[in-house]
């Protein structure tokens, strides 16, 4: 792993699985001629490897409130009272002074998997007889938007006639947990027709105003006892208008990238701090109300950013991940636990079938969690993988294919990749990977397996893993690197000498760290982004070896993050792409179909004198795409010789991302501070001249067939 922070904290950080206005140099009038050192020859007539359709993609992990409170737009925190702290996210109005009693009960619950509910009793009628849910750092409410409220209710002894539902602005933020608040009312309704049996009630609330930090208030009408459970407030405006859909602005940012794949659900989230807390995909499908929540492994990982209220509701589960992949045109790449908990935490190991070998004993399952198998062997994990492939690709006549069909997706998801393990290392991983891989291949020989080279980009463990995985003919090895910006510029030739045949590379997690790995002071600066752009020219130049790449992490809530930098930031209402996002987008929307060799004058290596380049042909559009990074303070005229090009057009398109300030960042208030701009330029001949702006990343699309 990188050595910028050689501590256990740095190791934990590496385990994530974890300004100025743009000025464009004029393209038409070239003030100076390119020098020989700035002459590039693109060998259009000597094409290289095809560019994999999966070349540029997305890595999703539920860190930084990426799922609950982010991409998954449920507004109620702890809606079913199933967390260890049963009232997390809830507080009694004025300390519940208007209630004679309240408790979280398990007496005759809704179901065996939804075992807890809130019971409120009021001896005297009061408008304060109830509870408030705070949401995820508040609830983002938009004026005129509609929200579906639903709840399960059961009336007990007494004369409770209804439940008052109020959506209000948090007018008492910072006033303490006992305050009732007097915020502006945004929407209101009343649920009536209560019975002595559990029944689901639904109402639509239309907001009369906008508030970034609203809250939900529920109060009893009358006196007596009322039970409530599965409290939900869900925006009707979701991606594709789905009932359990996703947040539209965040999905749009992903779709706009034209991603080749979506890797999910992580990351270290796959492993868990111990095997009891591991991610189990089978518990994330089916009826949303029956999905049992689980503590998020990032909630207390970083003491400087502890988030004890962070959990996974699994409203965003494997079915929704597959659906999202389909929506944005990306290949799904699920990553599965290989029978190992996070090696930076307990390092617990599942024993082989019939064996007592392994790591530390599994701790007792947390209360409120109901895993199907809390004492698993490796066979359990292998069977989960086989069942997942059947769930994704199997016919309706198969047991797990039938479950997919029952959820509303009759057609297979056409799964082609699965990952075995996140970023495990050492002999414990390799000895589990081999039987795992063989079992998958025996039943599904067409599935491509993504294997792990560990959290570090070099070193003895990395070398041994890479060698052994190649011996086992692994289709794809996942490599991770978090490092300073200069590391990315210095390692642009990382894959130049990798084998061109056999196992391919997935650059599965990478991001430049402006301060240090895992530092809370890291920024999504232009220096980091342009350094990543330079490094990616090396990925593209080696398309015969690298077939997948993704920045990490993907999402972060501005008020609830654990790790930085991150590609997309958001609050409860707004979102923006960082400079890193625009670098990724410029690559993924200009992928081309075939790699074209690029030579520099005087045989200079890529990156010499801080000029980085790569080129591809786009046979679909009949264009040559040249990507250029100028990491210098001066404008740089370049000459691009298109060797062997045919049917050259007259006008090209330049997309330029640039800033004179390497510390420049984007923000919620200035989301386009560093953003790409387009312009046209003349193509007079097969020798194209263009002046690169200082500290810029430029994509040139030149009409010309090969």
TrEMBL record:
<dbReference type="Pfam" id="PF06964">
    <property type="entry name" value="Alpha-L-AF_C"/>
</dbReference>
<keyword id="KW-0732">Signal</keyword>
<dbReference type="InterPro" id="IPR055235">
    <property type="entry name" value="ASD1_cat"/>
</dbReference>
<comment type="similarity">
    <text>Belongs to the glycosyl hydrolase 51 family.</text>
</comment>
<keyword id="KW-0325">Glycoprotein</keyword>
<dbReference type="InterPro" id="IPR013780">
    <property type="entry name" value="Glyco_hydro_b"/>
</dbReference>
<dbReference type="InterPro" id="IPR017853">
    <property type="entry name" value="GH"/>
</dbReference>
<protein>
    <recommendedName>
        <fullName>non-reducing end alpha-L-arabinofuranosidase</fullName>
        <ecNumber>3.2.1.55</ecNumber>
    </recommendedName>
</protein>
<feature type="signal peptide">
    <location>
        <begin position="1"/>
        <end position="29"/>
    </location>
</feature>
<feature type="region of interest" description="Disordered">
    <location>
        <begin position="353"/>
        <end position="375"/>
    </location>
</feature>
<keyword id="KW-0378">Hydrolase</keyword>
<dbReference type="InterPro" id="IPR051563">
    <property type="entry name" value="Glycosyl_Hydrolase_51"/>
</dbReference>
<dbReference type="InterPro" id="IPR010720">
    <property type="entry name" value="Alpha-L-AF_C"/>
</dbReference>
<dbReference type="Pfam" id="PF22848">
    <property type="entry name" value="ASD1_dom"/>
</dbReference>
<feature type="domain" description="Alpha-L-arabinofuranosidase C-terminal">
    <location>
        <begin position="508"/>
        <end position="696"/>
    </location>
</feature>
């Amino acid at each position: 792993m990188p050595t910028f922070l050689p501590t256990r904290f740095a190791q934990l950080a590496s385990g994530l699985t974890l300004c100025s206005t743009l000025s464009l140099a004029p393209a038409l009038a070239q003030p100076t001629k390119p020098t020989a050192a700035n002459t590039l020859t693109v060998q259009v007539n000597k094409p290289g490897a095809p560019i994999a359709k999966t070349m540029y993609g997305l890595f999703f992990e539920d860190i930084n409130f990426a799922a609950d409170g982010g991409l998954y737009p449920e507004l109620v925190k702890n809606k079913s009272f199933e967390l260890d702290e049963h009232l997390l996210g809830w507080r009694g109005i004025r300390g519940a002074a208007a209630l004679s009693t309240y408790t979280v009960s398990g007496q005759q619950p809704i179901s065996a998997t939804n075992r807890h509910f809130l019971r409120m009793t009021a001896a005297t009628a009061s408008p304060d007889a109830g509870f408030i849910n705070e949401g995820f750092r508040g609830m983002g409410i938009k004026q005129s938007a509609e929200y579906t409220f639903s709840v399960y209710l059961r009336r007990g002894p007494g004369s409770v006639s209804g439940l008052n539902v109020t959506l209000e602005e948090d007018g008492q933020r910072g006033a303490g947990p006992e305050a009732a608040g007097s915020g502006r009312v945004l929407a209101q309704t009343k649920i009536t027709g209560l019975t002595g049996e559990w029944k689901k009630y639904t109402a639509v609330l239309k907001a009369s105003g906008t508030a970034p930090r609203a809250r939900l208030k529920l109060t009893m009408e009358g006196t007596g006892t009322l039970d409530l459970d599965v409290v939900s407030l869900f925006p009707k405006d979701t991606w594709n208008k789905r009932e359990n859909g996703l947040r539209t602005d965040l999905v749009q940012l992903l779709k706009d990238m034209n991603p080749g794949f979506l890797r999910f659900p992580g990351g270290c989230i796959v492993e868990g701090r111990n095997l009891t807390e591991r991610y189990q995909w089978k518990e994330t499908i089916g009826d949303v109300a029956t999905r049992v929540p689980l503590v998020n492994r990032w909630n207390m990982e970083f003491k400087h950013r502890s988030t004890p209220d962070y959990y996974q509701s699994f409203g965003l589960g494997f079915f929704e991940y597959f659906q999202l992949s389909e929506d944005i045109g990306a290949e799904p790449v699920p990553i599965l636990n290989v029978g190992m908990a996070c090696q930076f935490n307990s390092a617990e190991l599942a024993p082989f079938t019939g064996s007592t070998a392994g790591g530390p004993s599994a701790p007792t399952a947390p209360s409120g969690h109901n895993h199907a198998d809390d004492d698993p062997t490796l066979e359990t994990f292998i069977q989960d993988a086989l069942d997942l492939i059947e769930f994704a690709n199997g016919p309706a006549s198969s047991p797990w294919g039938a479950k997919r069909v029952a959820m509303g997706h009759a057609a297979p998801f056409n799964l082609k990749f699965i990952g075995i393990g996140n970023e495990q290392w050492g002999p414990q991983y390799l000895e589990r990977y081999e039987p795992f891989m063989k079992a998958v291949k025996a039943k599904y020989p067409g599935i491509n397996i993504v294997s792990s080279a560990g959290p570090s980009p070099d070193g003895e463990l990395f070398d041994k893993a890479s060698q052994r995985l190649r011996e086992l003919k692994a289709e794809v090895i996942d490599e991770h690197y978090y490092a300073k910006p200069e590391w990315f510029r210095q390692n642009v030739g990382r894959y130049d000498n990798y084998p061109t045949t056999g196992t391919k590379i997935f650059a599965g997690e990478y991001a430049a760290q402006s301060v240090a790995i895992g530092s809370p002071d890291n920024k999504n600066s232009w220096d980091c982004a342009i350094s990543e752009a330079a490094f990616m020219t090396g990925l593209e130049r080696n398309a015969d070896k690298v077939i997948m790449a993704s920045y990490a992490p993907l999402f972060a809530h501005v008020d609830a993050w654990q790790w930085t930098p991150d590609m997309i930031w958001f609050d409860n209402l707004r979102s923006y792409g960082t400079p890193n996002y625009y670098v990724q987008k410029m690559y993924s929307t200009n992928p081309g179909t075939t790699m074209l060799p690029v030579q520099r004058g005087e045989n200079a290596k890529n990156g010499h004198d801080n000029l980085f380049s790569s080129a591809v042909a786009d046979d679909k559009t009949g264009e040559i795409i040249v990507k250029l990074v100028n990491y210098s303070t001066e404008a740089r005229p370049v000459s691009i010789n298109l060797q062997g090009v045919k049917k050259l057009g007259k006008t090209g398109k330049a997309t330029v991302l640039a800033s004179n300030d390497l510390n420049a960042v984007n923000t919620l208030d200035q989301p386009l501070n560093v953003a790409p701009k387009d312009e046209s330029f003349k193509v007079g001949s097969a020798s194209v001249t263009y002046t690169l702006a200082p500290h810029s990343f430029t994509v040139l699309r030149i009409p010309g067939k090969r």
